[in-house]
Amino acid sequence: MDMTSKQTPSILLTGGTGFIGSHIAVEVARAGLRPVLYDNLCNSKRSVVERLGSIIGRPVDFVQGDIRDGDLMRRTLREHHVSAVIHLAGLKAVGESVQQPLAYWDNNVVGTLRMLEAMNDCGVRSLVFSSSATVYGEPQRLPITESHPLSATSPYGQTKLAIEHMLRDLSVSDERWHLCLLRYFNPVGAHESGQIGEDPNGIPNNLMPFVLKVAAGQFRELSVWGGDYPTPDGTGVRDYIHVVDLAAGHVAAVQRLDGMRCEAINLGTGRGTSVLELVGAFERVNGVKVPHVMKDRRPGDVTSCFADPSLALQRLGWRTQRTVEDMCRDAWRWQNASAARTSPD
User: Which domains, from first to last, does the chain contain?
Assistant: First the structure.
């Protein structure tokens, strides 16, 4: 079958031009499927579409739109012969969600509701949802399994939890739906080509983009939020996962959706790395300094969080392949390539 044909069933990626979505697009194409990107560009750039085309080797379909626009979503699903959706579109900054909760509930929860209505109307009932480890709240035990009690310490986490509840209710009501809720931990790194990576608009909220900008001299120092946690070095511990490994997990989920009703699966490495350990690894593998200053804890942040990824191996045949050092090396390559593209010289 000609996989570039407009009649080829395709995978719709909401939030497809973002950090995670763009890497998933590459893996979707590598699997012989056709990615269709749907994004309102509120936290990404249009130029990603052309760079993806360069990596994949053919033009990538892109629709600029909001997931709350039900009419546009219906047209997109029908015109592109979409067979499944990977739903990544959403606001995602913990601190910002505390300051702007209504924006998060509107975009994330109402947006998902409108998208599900459009999917149902179009007979597209296969969905992989980008959930988050934030649905576990402050961990009661480590590593975190999928049976861990659910809660959330921020409005962002509450929206992810609400969407999970919505999807479970949908699954109970209609057995035609096939749903996978991927709870992933802390994606970092970049594609080895240096063509795509994490490039948020405005001041970064996540650790690695901030590290990159400090290392590149764009910011004077890195703010480390909290140095008094009960961890070995006092900084928060997270399960950092290479974004390419994460993307491969989404493709594995899409390929196994037919055998699922509604399942939650962790995507993580199973190893915790502190903020200062990540900064140290970055300095070591790239030979650059990242000046940092300790700040007070941020509201909504948890002390330590890392996954038990064994269910992903069992259900998806998936495990991570890349190390923290790989993440740091690939992220720095992306930063330097990005700087070279925007240089006036």
Answer: 10-340 (3.40.50.720)
Q: How buried is 13 (Cβ within 10 angstroms: 0-12 exposed, 13-18 middle, 19+ buried)?
A: buried
Six token digits for residue 263: 């399942």
Q: What is the mean pLDDT of residues 69-92?
A: 97
User: HSE-up of 40 (CA within 13 Å, CB side)?
Assistant: 14
Whether the pLDDT of residue 4 is over 70: the answer is: no
Distance CA 270, CA 309 (A): 6
> What is the biggest distance separating any 2 CA atoms in the chain, rounded to whole angstroms?
59
Count of C-beta atoms within a 10 Å radius of residue 180: 27
At residue 9, the pLDDT reads: 73
Amino acid at 309: P
Tell me how far apart the alpha carbons of residues 179 and 93 are, in angstroms, rounded to a whole number. Answer: 25
Say if residues 268 and 239 touch (Cβ distance below 8 Å): yes
Q: Say how far apart CA 87 and CA 332 lie, in whole Å.
A: 28
Q: How many residues does the chain have?
A: 345
Closest CA to 327 of 243, 266, 249: 243
Which member of 136, 156, 184, 229 is catalytic?
156
Asked if residues 264 and 168 have their Cβ atoms less than 8 Å apart, the reply is no
> Angle 149-154-158 (CA atoms, 0-180°, nearest 5)?
60
The pLDDT of residue 344: 56
Q: Around 121, how many Cα atoms within 13 Å sit in the side-chain half-sphere?
A: 15
Is the confidence at residue 1, as pLDDT, over 70? no
The pTM of this model reads 0.94
Question: Are residues 242 and 189 in contact, defined by beta-carbon separation less than 8 angstroms?
Answer: yes
Q: Which pLDDT band, with edges at 50, 70 and 90, does 323 fall under?
A: very high
Reported as a single tens digit per residue, the pLDDT across 93-132 is 888 999 999 999 999 999 999 999 999 999 999 999 999 9
Residue 322 has pLDDT above 80, yes or no: yes
Asked if 156 is an active-site residue, the reply is yes
> What distance in Å separates the CA atoms of residue 129 and residue 54, rounded to the nearest whole number?
27
Residue whose structure tokens are 């947006």: 111
